[in-house]
Amino acid sequence: MHAEEKMTNETWPASPEKATLEAKNKFLGFWFFLGGETVLFASLFATYLALKDKVPTADHALSKDLFEMPLVFLMTMLLLTSSLTSVYAMHHMKNFEFKKMQLWLGITVLLGLAFLGFEIYEFNHYVHEYHHSFTSSAFGSAFYTLVGFHGGHVAFGLLWIIVLMIRNSKRGLSLYNAPKFYLASLYWHFIDVVWVFIFTVVYLMGMVG
Amino acid sequence: MSTYAQKKGVGAVLWDYLTTVDHKKIAILYLIAGGFFFVLGGLEAMVIRIQLAIPDNNFVSAGFYNEVLTMHGTTMIFLAAMPILLGFMNAVMPLQIGARDVAFPFLNALGFWLFLFGGLFLNLSWFLGGAPDAGWTSYASLSLASEGHGIDFYALGLQISGFGTLIGGINFLVTIINMRAPGMTYMRMPLFTWTTFVASALILFAFPPLTVGIFFLTFDRLFGANFFDPTMGGNTVIWEHLFWIFGHPEVYILILPAFGIFSEIISTFSRKRLFGYSSMVFATVLIGFLGFMVWAHHMFTTGLGPIANSIFAVATMAIAVPTGIKIFNWLFTMWGGSIRFTTPMLYAVSFVPSFLLGGVTGVMLAVAAADYQYHDTYFVVAHFHYVIVGGVVLAILAATHFYWPKMFGTMLNEFLGKITFWLFLIGFHLTFFIQHFLGLMGMPRRIFTFLPNQGLEVGNVVSTVGAFFMAIAVIILLINIVITSVKNVKVGNDPWGDGRSLEWAIASPPPFYNFKQLPLVRGLDPYWIEKMEGKKEMTPAEPLGDIHMPNNSFIPFMISLGLFIAAFGAMYRLDYSWGLPVLILGLLVTLLSMFTRSIKDDHGFHIHKEDLIDEDKGRKA
Ligand code: HEM
Ligand SMILES: [Cu+2]
Question: Which site in A30, B207, B277, B298 is 20 to 30 Å from A102, CA atoms measured?
Answer without folding.
Answer: A30
